[in-house]
Specification:
Layout: E1 13-16, H1 23-37, E2 41-46, H2 52-65, E3 69-75, H3 78-88, E4 92-95, E5 104-111, E6 115-116, H4 119-136, E7 148-150, H5 154-164, E8 173-178, H6 184-192, E9 197-202, H7 224-233, E10 237-241, E11 248-251, E12 257-258, H8 260-274, E13 279-283, H9 289-296, E14 300-304, H10 308-318, E15 322-324, E16 330-332, E17 338-339, H11 341-353, H12 359-364, E18 370-371, E19 375-378, H13 382-393, E20 400-402, E21 407-410, E22 414-420, E23 426-433, H14 436-451
Parallel strand pairs: 2-3, 2-4, 3-7, 8-9, 8-10, 13-14, 13-15
Antiparallel strand pairs: 1-5, 4-5, 5-6, 10-11, 11-12, 15-16, 16-17, 18-23, 19-23, 20-21, 21-22, 22-23
Length: about 450
């Protein structure tokens, strides 16, 4: 059997199909998911990858064999699956490998109400059951297996989002959307239908082989086509979704990328206008501008580790109204604390369409500092390199260190964070400063220590 440590990560299951996992293994995961969550009913969705229907169907059979009634919503975005989990009150499973290449697939699992299933909240137990059953044989089906039925929730999902952000009264906008042949091509037409938006659709054909570019807008090479189309057509903005359409990246009218930190700050200000005094979560990689804007708008910022399970846990604990990450994941209390790039995009459209200026001018107030972006370095000894960086800065005048997530070093006019990858021999560096020259200097200084 496949070594499950290769495919069961901290928050989901992801690996090469069928080399690392296949339909019989997916069936075991479905049975184990029901056992661990003690669910009598679940909901399942899948993306457009060629292997997704078969894997999700096998998972459904495994779940039904343990007595759970299964609702299959078919093709959907990950945030549409979260909507189904939240609105139906059911645990859910989404078959997708998000932005990863076509040969991969995976499962994102949640409890009822879109609550996360992470390593410490059920995933380790699911893995242990699958390993045991793979060795000893799957358990016999229960006396009364569950049913498997189909249901379409796309229109309900769109209606829920449109009830949260009213776009009916905005000025007409021309928007280019690059779906990257992913699930944005499925959800965007329904969500945007009838709104004062002139939609220029790029790569909306669902194709899990990703013929035009990888569905990973975090990599600059994958938004080049979008940037060019925005500039050529004079569009007001561009939106790029990743493969499972739970993340959305924005480019302005000049085709320039808008920092996810600036989007976090913009959305936070809008959410605080609806919920005065609310708490807003941001991970420790987001810009200084985010907590500044939150405080300026009467809110309470809370800093947390990187990762959706940490964000969602903190949102549940604090009752936060919104949370944002540097990776363009945006979380909303009104969306069961789950992440939805579509709702964040709608906030951007509402803010832009509610005034007359261009997007670049609108977001300038939220984009206040110079940043390096995330820089990855391959290292043999992650722990040793982190210790060397800590030793280099510890005790330096005017500098503070914390280890909430990796190592963060902060001074009056700059900060940087170095974190180890959970899955690769990498250290990830992010730098921010009050000016570009300082950001470049600190970046080079940190990289010299990281690369030894």
């Amino acid at each position: 059997m496949t070594d499950l440590s290769q495919i069961v990560k901290a928050y989901d299951v992801r690996g090469v199909v069928p080399a690392q996992w296949d339909e019989p293994l997916a069936e075991l995961f479905g049975a184990a998911f029901v056992e661990v969550t003690a669910a009598d009913a679940i909901v399942i969705g899948h993306d457009m990858r060629p292997s997704s229907p078969g894997l999700s169907g096998a998972f459904a059979r495994g779940a039904a064999s343990r007595g759970a009634d299964v609702t299959q919503i078919g093709l959907c975005s990950t945030d549409e699956l979260y909507f189904a989990s939240g609105s139906l009150g059911l645990p859910g499973a989404m078959f997708t490998a998000s932005h990863n290449p076509a040969r991969y697939n995976g499962i994102k699992m949640c409890r009822a109400g879109a609550a996360p299933v992470g390593q410490d909240t059920g995933l380790a137990d699911i893995r242990a059951l699958v390993e045991r059953w793979a060795d000893e044989g799957a358990p016999q089906p229960v006396a009364a297996p569950g049913t498997i039925t189909q249901r379409d929730v796309l229109t309900d999902y769109a209606a829920h989002l449109r009830a949260l952000v009213d776009l009916g009264g905005i000025r007409p906008l021309r928007v280019v959307v690059d779906a990257g042949n992913g699930m944005g091509g499925h959800t965007v037409p329904t969500v945007f239908e009838g709104l004062p938006l002139e939609l220029d659709a790029m790569y909306f054909e669902l194709d899990g082989s990703f013929p035009h570019h990888e569905a990973n807008p975090l990599d600059p090479k994958n938004i080049v086509d979008l940037q060019a189309r925005v500039r050529e057509t004079g569009a007001d903005l561009g939106l790029a979704f990743d493969g499972d359409a739970d993340r959305c990246f924005v480019v302005d009218e000049n085709g320039d990328p808008v920092s996810p930190s600036a989007i976090t700050a913009l959305v936070a200000a809008r959410e605080l206008a609806k919920h005065p005094g609310g708490t807003v979560i941001h991970n420790l990689i987001t810009s200084w501008s985010v907590p500044e804007v939150v405080r300026e708008n009467g809110g309470e910022p809370v800093r947390t580790r990187v990762g959706h399970s940490f964000i969602k846990e903190e949102m549940a604990t604090t009752g936060a109204i919104f949370g944002g990450e540097h990776s363009a994941h945006y979380y909303f209390r009104d969306f069961w604390n789950a992440d939805t790039g579509m709702l964040a995009a709608m906030h951007v459209l509402a803010a832009l369409g509610g005034q007359q200026g261009p997007l670049s001018q609108l977001v300038a107030q939220y984009d206040r500092y110079a940043a390096s972006g995330e820089i990855n370095s391959t290292v043999d000894d992650q722990t040793g390199r982190l210790a060397a960086i800590k030793a280099a800065y510890q005790g330096r005048d005017g500098v503070t260190l914390d280890e909430l997530d990796g190592l963060t070093v902060t001074a009056d006019d700059w900060w940087f964070n170095v974190r180890a990858s959970n899955t690769e021999p990498l250290l990830r560096l992010n730098v921010e400063a009050r000016d570009t020259a300082t950001a470049d200097r600190i970046r080079d200084e940190a990289l010299a220590l990281i690369r030894g």
